[in-house]
Specification:
The protein has helices at residues 3-9, 13-24, 93-101, 106-110, 125-145, 199-209, 251-264, 275-287, 293-301, and strands at 40-42, 48-50, 56-57, 76-80, 86-89, 153-161, 177-184, 189-193, 215-219, 233-237. It is an alpha+beta fold.
Length: 309
C-alpha cells in the first residue's frame, strides 16, 4: 500500500477500524474470539457477544493486534494530564505495519524517517520494539502453520550467523549460530536454526522439508553424503574448483544468505533468543518479495494468537 493510500485509510480511527474489521472477518463472517462461533452480534458498548458461549469481546480480543495497547490508526495512550484525562499521541498499528514493511528499525520508528511528517508517529522505543517483535512472532507462527514439502530441484546449504570475531571462520566457528537452509528452485526458501551441522541433523532436516525423489544440490561437505541413501538424487558442487557446473550449483541459496546477512547488519546485534524470529522474518520477506507485504502482514496480525506459542 502506498503512503498516500495509507493516509486515506487512517484519516480517522473509524476508517481504520472499518478497514481492519473487514480483514478480521472469516469468509465475510465475524468470528467469536473464544469458541470461534459465527453467531455474533454487536452490543451497545460497541463490543460483540457470541450467542453460543455468551462471551463478550472486542475486535482485537485474542488476536495479535490485541497483544499491545495500540489502536488501529492514531490514538495511543501516553500519560495522564493534570485534569486527570488520558492524553494520546498519533501512532497505531497500521503505521507500524507500514514502517515494518519498509524495513524501518525500532529506533527509527520511535524517531520517524523523512517521508513521515513530524508528529505522525510518537511511540517510545520500548513500545516500538515490542510491536516489531510481535510482528516477527506472528510471522514465525504463520510459517509453522503452512509448512509443506519442497520438491523438484532443491538446494541445501548451511551458514553461520553472528558478530565479527577474531579466530576461526566458517564451519565450526565458535559463538556463531548455525542455520540450515533449503531452497526450491523457482519456489520458496525454508531456513531454520539448528543445534549443529552434523550428518544426522542435516539429514533429519532434509527429510522433514524435502519430498523423497527430489534432486538435492549441495556443496562437497561430507555430512550430506547420506542423502543418496534416503531416496534423494544427490549432486555435489566442489567450490574449491568452480561455483557451478551446468545445473549443479547452490547460488540461489547463497543469494539468500547474502540477502539475510545484509539486512541483519543494521540491527547491530540480535540476541540468540530473538534471532529465530528475525530469521523467519527474512525468510518471509524473501518468499514474498514480489507481493504486497503490507496486506499480508495486516492479515497475519488479524489471526487469533495460538494458545501455546
Amino acid at each position: 500500500m502506498r503512503l498516500i493510500d495509507l493516509y486515506l485509510v487512517i484519516k480517522s480511527e473509524r476508517h481504520a477500524l472499518r478497514y481492519l474489521s473487514k480483514i478480521c472477518r472469516k469468509n465475510g463472517h465475524r468470528i467469536c474470539a473464544y469458541c470461534r462461533g459465527r453467531e455474533v452480534y454487536q452490543i451497545p458498548d460497541k463490543r460483540f457477544r457470541c450467542k453460543r458461549c455468551k462471551a463478550r469481546f472486542n475486535l482485537f480480543t485474542n488476536r495479535w493486534y490485541g497483544r499491545l495497547n495500540i489502536t488501529a490508526s492514531q490514538p495511543v495512550p501516553a500519560r495522564t494530564d493534570l485534569s486527570g484525562w488520558r492524553t494520546a499521541w498519533p501512532g497505531g498499528w497500521l503505521w507500524l505495519i507500514k514502517l515494518f514493511e519498509l524495513e524501518t528499525s525500532s529506533r527509527r520508528i520511535a524517531s520517524p524517517p523523512v517521508p513521515i511528517r513530524a508528529g505522525e508517529i510518537k511511540l517510545s522505543y520500548p513500545t516500538a520494539l515490542k510491536a516489531t517483535n510481535l510482528i516477527r512472532q506472528a510471522i514465525a507462527t504463520e510459517s509453522k502453520d503452512y509448512e509443506f514439502l519442497l520438491k523438484g530441484e532443491v538446494e541445501a546449504d548451511e551458514s553461520y550467523f553472528g558478530g565479527r570475531r577474531k579466530g576461526k571462520r566458517g564451519r565450526g566457528a565458535a559463538n556463531k549460530i548455525p542455520v540450515f537452509g533449503i531452497l526450491e528452485r523457482n519456489g520458496i526458501v525454508s531456513v531454520d536454526v539448528v543445534p549443529n551441522v552434523g550428518a544426522q541433523t542435516l539429514l533429519n532436516m532434509t527429510i522433514k522439508k524435502v519430498r523423497r525423489g527430489s534432486i538435492v544440490y549441495t556443496d562437497k561437505f561430507r555430512c550430506y553424503d547420506s542423502l543418496m541413501f534416503c531416496g534423494y538424487r544427490h549432486l555435489k558442487i566442489d567450490h574449491s574448483k568452480y561455483f557451478s557446473s551446468g545445473k549443479v550449483y547452490i547460488n540461489g541459496l547463497e543469494g539468500f544468505w547474502s540477502f539475510a546477512k545484509e539486512r541483519l547488519m543494521k540491527y547491530h546485534g540480535v540476541s540468540k533468543e530473538k534471532f529465530p524470529y528475525y530469521l523467519k522474518e527474512l525468510e518471509y520477506r524473501y518468499n514474498n518479495r514480489d507481493k504486497n507485504l503490507f496486506s499480508l502482514l495486516t492479515k497475519i496480525l488479524a489471526d487469533f494468537v495460538p494458545i501455546v506459542l
